[in-house]
Amino acid sequence: MKKISKKPPFRFSHFSMGTTFEVIIAGSDEIYAGQASQAVFAEIDRIDNLFNRFNPSSEVGQLNLLKAGKKLKIGIELFECLKTAARVQKETGGAFNINVASLVQYKRKGIEFPVELSLLPAGFMAKILDRLPGQKTHGVEFDLGGIGKGYALEKAQVICSDWGIKRVLLHGGTSTALAVGDASSGNEGNTGWPVGIGGDWDCPKAPARFFLKNRALSGSGIEVKGEHIIDPKTWQPAKGHKAVWVSHTSAAWADALSTAFMVMTTEQVEEYCSRNPAVWAMVVKDAGKWKIYNRKAVNGEW
Question: 89-99: per-residue pLDDT in tens?
Answer without folding.
Answer: 999 999 999 99
